[in-house]
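Researcher: Here's the sequence for the chain we discussed earlier.
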Amino acid sequence: MAPTPAEIRESSSVSHHTPMHSPAGSPGGSSGPERPRLLVVGNAGVDSAEIAKTLGNAYEVVSTTPDQALTVLATQNVQAILAAADDFLPLERDLVTRHSTILLNAIGEGVCLCSEGGRILWANELFRRFDPRVRRRISAACRHAVERFNVGPRAGATLDETRRPRRYSMAFRKLQKYYDAVLTPVVPDAASGVTRTRQVVAVVRDVSTKRMMQQKIEAISRAGGELVRIEAEVVQKMHVAERLKLLEEKVTKFAHELLNFDYFAIRLVNNDNRALDLVMSRGLPLAATEIQLFAEPRNNGISGYVAATGRSYICEDCAADPLYVIGIEKAGSSLTVPLKLFERVIGIFNIESEKKNAFTDTDRQFAEIFAQYIAMALHILNLLLVERYTTSESARGSVQGELSEPLNDLVVEAEWLKEQAGGNTAMREHIDRILVDVESIRKRVKDAAKGPRTLLGVEEILSRRDVDPVLDGKRVLVADNEQIMLETVRDVLKSRGCNVVTSDSGGGAITLLDQWAASHDADEGFDLIVSDINLGDKTGYEVFAAAKRADATLPVILMTGFGYDPHHSIVRASQEGLSCVLFKPFQAEKLVDEARSAVQNRAPRASA
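Model: Thanks. This is the structure I predict for it:
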């Protein structure tokens, strides 16, 4: 006989969930207001049909068996449950267990319960997906932790302190995986009288991404330290071009090995006109290296934008990005980061890839770290050059001051001797020669003190005026915006038989070279170019490039004041066939020797 509704209320339990509306058109629904859905868990003692008749006006009744109850709850929108007490209590426990399992599977960490012997008693889905080698290592760690938990408290420590959670870090080199694990003892119930820990809960987190990023950052930092490391024994033997060349080799090596950057360019901001002068590049076509860009946020490509704003920029698709100008052929994407020195942007580091979306935010972070070391290395090299110049200037000033007094004494003594010589003509001539030599010493010391604005030993060269058979008749273009230097170099080369054409600007020198390249007129051609590096309007590299456009075999000598090269013309030109670099002030005889060598060693022109 079926139980009455009153009996049902006495012998059954109804569990109400938070009310939720059933979807429209659900089974048992009506055109009126939607009714909450009631799940009736039927067995031999519950008549589901009778309950549906009794409660049908208030609920949409769905019937199921105890075995299928959890499945129905998981797949249907149920607001209340009616079941016999014997069925409801196990169902409630199953629901709690199911929710706990869902929670443990959703936390994003591997969780397991391990026995004191290291046997895995239970684990969530993420832990079960771990590689078997990882699970074995966790099992061994749990076994070791249980032993530590059960050794008893140390002197002065309590039992609770001994049973604090233990942390383990695990590295799996072959898997390229790293894990952190927290092992916590399952503390026995104090009322049970059991004090031994028999189970451990392990929570395991995959920290591979974090650990590998940390290792990459450490590797970049070590490489950066190599960039800025100055070895006195090595550097002292190098001039500026060799030092910068060494830096470029290191940058290229580390960019490839650590960051997989094979196509890149480094540009520095020219403080005079905000131009982005190319310092070094790798794998870029000539058109990309010769393009003129400025540190402006508009109309100067991504490099100009980054240099102007100081913000890094990831170009995911070069073809679709309006800021992108030119780079490698078939460019897919690019990454550009600023070179900063004491928060001041001094240039940019631009990396290119043939693939679209090749760069991630992680790549950006790595490139920014590496760029800091590049900026620092360039700054240190410039400081070394400035130090050399100031030290030389200080030494020249000291020498001039130290020699002043004894030279004055020599003049006084010579004048006294001249008076004493009376009518002795031969003696007076010797004394006059001494006075001339004293003045010569004064002038040479004074010229040396002028630093890069003059040459040394010019008087001796000009006094001989020996025509050099190698240089005789050679047409030489000299470019320097310092008038004294321009005239001095001109006079020295003319004294050796050269036909010298001068230009007091880089633009003027380039115009002469371009005219020759266009006309192919032998009368407008040159046998040698001698140019300063910092010409004000142009750089020494731009003059060098114009010379090579006119004639790839044309030798070029660059001059620089105390080796400072803000536009890094020396490195760029050295890669492309620069004859030599003269560091002012240099001996006039050195200029003659280098000019002779450059003309003698000129490669023959390729036949048309």
